[in-house]
Write the structure tokens for this entry.
Amino acid sequence: MVLDYPAIGQRIRRLRKAQGLTQQTLAERAEQEPSNISHIERGATKLSLPTLISIANALGVTADELLCDSIAASGTVFQQEVVQLLADCSHAELKIITETMRALKDSLRRADQDR
């Protein structure tokens, strides 16, 4: 199994920014060096389990929220992310997104059958 370090870093960056935190503030909360947070967010370094846990705690999220791109049984994390993305959509936006998702899902399933 291979961990997707760039995806982990992107999630950390997205969560940090959503909370309005700087890399410096996250580093302080996670007891890390700011340069280490930068390297992690860019996927330029492999983070240890203790570092992952300290960052998760600093962000107030679970480890599976950071690792969901590498864990096969993390569907609920993606479902929660979709719910959050849709939370502020208008009726018209929800309709378009639903139609798009339905078409995308159908295309993905047809592609799987063709393999």
User: Anything to note?
Assistant: The two ends are 23 Å apart (CA to CA).
